[in-house]
Amino acid sequence: MAKKINRLKKNSIMNFVAVAVLTAIGIVLSVCSFIIPFTSTVFNGFASSISLGLDLAGGVSVVYDCALSENSNTNDLDSAIDATVKRLQSVIGGEYSEALITRQGNSEIRIEVPSVTNSDEIFGLIGDPTPLYMTLEEGAVEDGDLYISGADIKNVFVSFQDSNYGVVINFTDEGKQKFADLTGKASDGAGKIYIYLGDPASPTWENELTCDEKITSGSTFISSGAGEEGWTYEDAEEYSLRIMSGTFNVTLNLKENSVISATLGENALKYCLIGTAVGLFVILLIMWLRYGDFGLLAFFGLIIYIVLMVFFLQAISFVQLTLPGLAGIILSIGMAVDGAIIIFEKVREDYRAGKKIPLACKNGFKRAFWPIFDSNITTIFSALILYILGTASIQGFAITLLIGIVLSMFMNLVVLRFFVKWYLPINSVKAKRLHLPKQVRPLRQDVVEVTAGGEANE
Questions:
Q1: Are residues 278 and 182 in the same domain?
Q2: Does pTM surpass 0.85?
Q3: What pLDDT is attached to residue 458?
């Protein structure tokens, strides 16, 4: 029996050591940057790789008011704005992966680009949205002419083909058929396709394409004309942006333009980290005073929780950490601690009622499961609703809260259960180390019997 107990103690100690080593590695990977051995690749810590929002990193915030453009293929402003948001995400997101483009109110689009200090860079990417036309006719576009508008173009991007930089234009399903008809007629005799930007009655000539055959693939590659000096990458990018500016379904009227300094965000982040460190120390102290070794196990689980939180914040591509997001993290840490408190209070209740420590722990986790599960599930539903219906700042709060709640459930219902299971072979009888209350022994009925008249007969 003694050999079995010693073996269980040894296994428990080895388990704790293994988890401690993995946690230490996770902390190093989270906060340190270093050159990967035997390579020239620099590894940036998880924390450094977290995408920061505008309020933490500083940057440019632009708000546009939208109205239907002349070349829009819909009379529904809502659908036109949604389509424009997607196109802006393609244009700006290709250059700034951390850019956030969202709808605001009924007819506005907000563009936030962290770490950018000059709003002209954003205006240069968007360009001056004007109608685009591809037609066989040279000059003004008239009713009845066969032409392709910006609404028929799906996306535009720079490409390198046949030793030249150029632009690839991909068409929508409807635009694919129009382009096939256009190139078919051009190859039959017209010979050229003209590209214009601006008012169809008096458009500005942009380029002309020589076409020798019908193109049915739904895309085309445009480069500099024959005999001309080839485009550089910058030339092709500029041309692609001009073409893309003609594909918006709405006209964009600048309503708000502001540059936010990173100083405020840096200070807020610094003070938040300091506050979190102080809060964790207070949590450690209170949990140890109340629950002894169990409090230390809960704090160990909390460290693992924070490492996992940092990892997921940088691993999930669409997550952008903002000040409201920091509030979501802090709230989820509080709920994680609350879950551990519920478990240990149930353990204390069972021990006080006379159960031994192992049985009290087993019953404590069993009794605490549904209260923890129910409270966390309702919070998860609330976070999902906030993310779906909320604005960008509320979404930042909701997504970090959602990640934090899922991780807190994992920590309390899985990790902490294993920690307690490993701990019991080390100590299953010393209640003082767990700061457990004194047990209350029920009175024996055969020792004291109270009569109906209120007298006690032994």
A1: no
A2: no
A3: 42
